[in-house]
Amino acid sequence: GQNIDQPTEMTATEGAIVQINCTYQTSGFNGLFWYQQHAGEAPTFLSYNVLDGLEEKGRFSSFLSRSKGYSYLLLKELQMKDSASYLCAVKTGFQKLVFGTGTRLLVSP
Amino acid sequence: DTEVTQTPKHLVMGMTNKKSLKCEQHMGHRAMYWYKQKAKKPPELMFVYSYEKLSINESVPSRFSPECPNSSLLNLHLHALQPEDSALYLCASSQDNKGMNTEAFFGQGTRLTVV
C-alpha cells in the first residue's frame, strides 16, 4: 500500500515562516511533488524533489530525505493569499502520482 | 499554452442518465489522467492514459468509462452513477510519462452532483 501523511491543518501569521511536513512509505519512488490548491480550484505545481536536499524557488523551498521517507515545504514571508491546501504527491512509478492527505494552511493577519 | 481545459464546469445528473466529461490540452503531453476529489480530501487517481492507451485503471467501477480519442483529448463517460459519486473530477496531463521531472498540469475540474 501507499501511505503519504501530512498534518491536517496548520495556522500561521502573515509575514511568518511555516514548515509543512510529509512522510511517505510507498512501493516505488520517482520523485516528490508539492502542489497548492485553493478551495474549488485546480492544484498548481509548486516544487519537485528527486534527490536528497533542498530546492529553493522564491518564497518556497522543499526538502527531501529519501532514506527517511520525509519531505517538507517551507513557506517564507507568508501572505494572506497563501491560505490554501498544500498537497504532497509521490510519483510511485513512471505514470502514477499519488497524493498525500493534504494540509490546510490558514494565514491570519 | 499551459492550460488543461475541462468541460462542463458543473454537471447535475440523475442516476439513470448518461453524460460525458471532456478534457483537452495542447501542450503535446502524452500522459493524461483522471482524478476524483471529494470535499476536503486529496485527489485520488482513477485512470492514466499513456500515448492514447489506457495504462492504469485503479479498480474504478465500470459505470466510469474513460476514452482517449487522440493525444489532446480525454473523455470520461458516466452511466448509472450513484449519489456517492458526486465529487470534483480533475483531469491532468504531463509531458512524458517516463521522465522524472514531469509535473502534472491540472484542469479546473468538473463539479459533478448525482441526484
Seen as an oligomer or otherwise, the chain set is: heterodimer
What is the percentage of strand-forming residues of chain B? over 45%
Terminal CA distance of chain B:
36 Å
The DSSP helix count of chain A reads 0
Features:
heterodimer; A: 109 residues; mainly beta; 6-stranded mixed sheet; 5-stranded antiparallel sheet; globular; B: 115 residues; 7-stranded mixed sheet; 0% helix
Could you walk me through the main structural features you see in this protein, from its secondary elements to its overall organization?
The complex is a heterodimer of chains A (109) and B (115). By secondary structure, chain A is mainly β. Chain A is built from no helices and 11 strands. The chains are: A mainly beta (109), B mainly beta (115).
What secondary-structure arrangement, pairings included, does this model have?
The complex is a heterodimer of chains A (109) and B (115).
Chain A: E1 3-5, E2 9-13, E3 18-25, E4 32-37, E5 44-49, E6 53-57, E7 60-65, E8 70-75, E9 84-91, E10 97-99, E11 103-108
Parallel strand pairs in A: 2-11
Antiparallel strand pairs in A: 1-3, 3-8, 4-5, 4-9, 6-7, 7-8, 9-10, 9-11
Chain B: E1 4-7, E2 10-13, E3 18-25, E4 31-37, E5 44-50, E6 53-57, E7 64-70, E8 73-79, E9 87-94, E10 105-106, E11 110-114
Parallel strand pairs in B: 2-11
Antiparallel strand pairs in B: 1-3, 3-8, 4-5, 4-9, 5-6, 7-8, 9-10, 9-11
